[in-house]
Amino acid sequence: MEMTQKAAQFLREKLGREAEILSRAPGRVNIIGEHTDYNDGFVMPIATDLATYFAAAPRDDDTVRVYCGTARELVEFSLKTLPRRGDGHLQDYLAGVAWSLGMEGISFRGVDAALITDVPIGSGLSSSAALEVSWALVLMAAAEAEPMEPRKLALACQRAENDFVGMKCGVMDQMASVLGRRDQAILLDCWTLDYQHVPLPADRLAVVVMDTGKPRQLVDSEYNLRRQQCEKAAQLLGVRALRDADMEMLMERAENMDEVIFRRARHVICENERVFECAQALRDADFQTVGRVLNESHASLKEDYEVSCPELDLICELAREQPSCYGARLVGAGFGGCAMALVRSGDEESFGAAVKSAYDARSAYQSRIIPVHADSGAGSFRC
Ligand code: GLA
Q1: Is 169 near ligand 1, meaning CB less than 6 Å away?
Q2: Which residues are designated catalytic?
Q3: 43-62: b (≥16 Cβ within 10 Å) or e
Q4: pLDDT digits (tens, 9 = 90+) for 140-186
Q5: What does DSSP say about strands 368-372 and 325-330: parallel, antiparallel, or unpaired?
Q6: What is the whole-number distance in angstroms between the Cα of residue 346 and the centre of ligand 1?
Q7: Hey, where are the domains in the chain?
Q8: Whole-model pTM above 0.70?
Q9: Is 337 near ligand 1, meaning CB less than 6 Å away?
């Protein structure tokens, strides 16, 4: 059954309502540009065909009832009080998005809704952004609000996550969820929010997600520490953000800089350059270069930025041993969760089977191989 139909069925069975609004918002896989977004740098994600779906019906009061068909759980709260649990539970995301959209002057109506998702939760594929954006579209539609410019909507969702849920993420995930396009990656400037689509031809290049099965650990604390280290580096280099620094500036100050701060800055500066090298190679259909740049990104995330782990390193090494693989790297914040590989189209299955059996034999964790496609961005409609 189609995902939207499943969501509508949950709405009928659990909350006794027929769907009037349907929404979908995708997760993302970042092709390249990792840990650059909060440095006002460049990223190049795709929106995936893994997504979060809502079926909803407006109410005549201020109550929100959301049945999560994936977790088999009902969340209920009032739009007047917007309670915060503070533990990153689903309710915090739902209330947080309502709180943040409220700051845009939207006056809401209560809503009954059911959600389901096939974005793996907490694995680095942006399950949070998919949830926020899909839910924001439901609230907007229920309120019959004027459609919001997609990037403005993405920023409102990021604010919900930063200031209500308490995760200081950058802007990449929410932007990817709204700006996605089929068979295209999104080259995004995280400072100006200008973007271009870059071809990712599905008939030649397959994106394969490799979930290490290793739960992500210490993500919040280590992520926030990286952010602080980057701010420190920018301060020492006399720039507003590391986006405005280059290797020449860094080398000039290297001697007076703490070694860790130096390496963090080097990752960000070089990663920004890699984003452009990768975008150009994609435009030229030079997939060998694309793959090399991906491998360099992983090495830099491992050595300079120190956000990898043995499981991510292993699965990327095993991926690269496959002749059909152009390159592989960890994806998202790191510290466990998923990696991705770019593979010759048509070879995804044999590639996936080989990586899985080699990884599972050598790791304490079971991997999951998930081929994904670059897909369109979020949307909603009334039934
Ligand atoms: C997480 C954050 C993003 C980005 C990545 C690292 O996914 O949500 O904003 O910073 O980590 O590139």
Answers
A1: yes
A2: 173
A3: bbbbbbbbbbbbbbbbbeee
A4: 999 999 999 999 999 999 999 999 999 999 999 999 999 999 999 99
A5: unpaired
A6: 30
A7: 3-196+376-382
A8: yes
A9: no
